[in-house]
UniProtKB/TrEMBL annotation:
Active site: H143 (proton donor/acceptor), K147 (proton donor)
Organism ancestry: Bacteria, Bacillati, Bacillota, Clostridia, Lachnospirales
EC number: 1.17.1.8
Gene transcribed to yield this protein: dapB
Binding-site positions, (S)-2,3,4,5-tetrahydrodipicolinate: H144, G153, T154
UniProt entry keywords in alphabetical sequence: Amino-acid biosynthesis, Cytoplasm, Diaminopimelate biosynthesis, Lysine biosynthesis, NAD, NADP, Oxidoreductase
Family from the record: Belongs to the DapB family.
Compartments, as annotated in UniProt: Cytoplasm
A GO MF label: 4-hydroxy-tetrahydrodipicolinate reductase
Name assigned to this protein: 4-hydroxy-tetrahydrodipicolinate reductase
Length: 253
């Protein structure tokens, strides 16, 4: 049995995960944490992670970037592993994740779906052929009108997986509106669309001379992320300190 604390339990993802866990005999939601609570959950809810005195094997986090600082301190002090899914973290927060992961297991992933995690691997291969052949890389992401961060964490992870193959020599461009110059070769452009209830669409475009190759992923429901997060929590229980990602879960190592 895996006992979980759901950080951000009353949010869109938190509620999806609570429903999934309720039907899974291998995992229990021992407590939730949410700054906003109406007292309707069948588990204890704390307003702040610092108030939480429930023992758990793993924390699943889908909250908001400002909430991650106290969460990391809690994980570090109580030695509770964490599946960290919140996006829009600052450079300082990302460094803190690295630091805390030396003391406790942290699995960080901007996208818990199987499809995106497979795409992260495929893109490395595609880029090895297409970048030397002169193809330009642009990433377009689309999300619902409630999303606060842009570009999405997934878009950045897709860019990073390509950039790592080329010693991080690509610059990221998020806004071309103030520039009056031809696109330099060594850059990856990002564009964000926000509207309606779009769950999450990502296109990675390799644009060459007279041909374009587009890798597309569309999430049709938040269940794909919830399923991955529950799998990750089961995987992370009892793991030694370290920084993990979804490929560890998928490859089970
Ligand atoms: N890694 C992945 O696969 C995915 C990541 N996300 C990310 O997860 C995060 C949450 O997404 P949603 O559930 O859609 O957002 P949401 O806004 O619906 O839910 C966030 C919840 O966190 C709570 N919260 C805010 N500050 C808090 C604090 N200090 N302590 C405790 N709870 C706090 C809010 O009250 C809210 O209930 C976002 O950063 C989003 O980008 C979302 C979907 C998939
Ligand atoms: O906020 C969301 O909804 C999502 N956020 C993640 C991101 O920023 O990449 C993952 C997914 O696309 C949904």
């Amino acid at each position: 049995m895996v006992n979980v604390i759901m950080h951000g339990c009353n949010g869109k993802m938190g509620r999806n995960i609570a429903a999934l866990i309720a039907d899974d005999p291998e995992i229990t939601l021992a407590a939730g944490v949410d700054a906003f609570d109406e007292g309707k959950n069948p588990f204890p809810v704390f307003k702040d992670i610092r108030d939480c005195d429930t023992e758990a094997d793993v924390i699943i986090d889908f909250s908001a970037a400002p909430a991650v600082d106290n969460l990391l301190t809690y994980c570090e002090e109580k030695k509770v592993p964490c599946v960290l899914c919140t996006t829009g973290l600052s450079e300082e927060q990302l460094q803190r994740v690295e630091e805390v992961s030396k003391k406790v297991a942290i699995l960080k992933s901007a996208n818990m779906s199987l499809g995106i995690n497979m795409l992260l691997k495929l893109l490395k291969e595609a880029a090895k052929t297409l970048v030397p052949a002169g193809y330009d890389i642009e990433i377009v992401e689309k999300h619902h009108n409630l999303k606060k961060d842009a570009p999405s964490g997934t878009a950045l992870a897709l860019g990073d997986t390509i950039n790592e193959e080329f010693d991080n020599e690509f610059d990221y461009v998020f806004d071309r509106s103030t520039r009056r110059e031809v696109r330099p070769k060594k850059e990856i452009g990002f564009a964000s669309v926000r509207g309606g209830t779009i769950v999450g669409d990502h296109d990675v475009i390799f644009a060459g001379t007279d041909e374009v190759i587009t890798f597309s992923h569309s999430a049709y429901s938040k269940a794909v992320f919830a399923k991955g997060a529950v799998q990750a929590a089961k995987y992370l229980k009892g793991k030694p300190a370290g920084l993990y990602n979804m490929s560890n879960v998928i490859d089970n190592k």
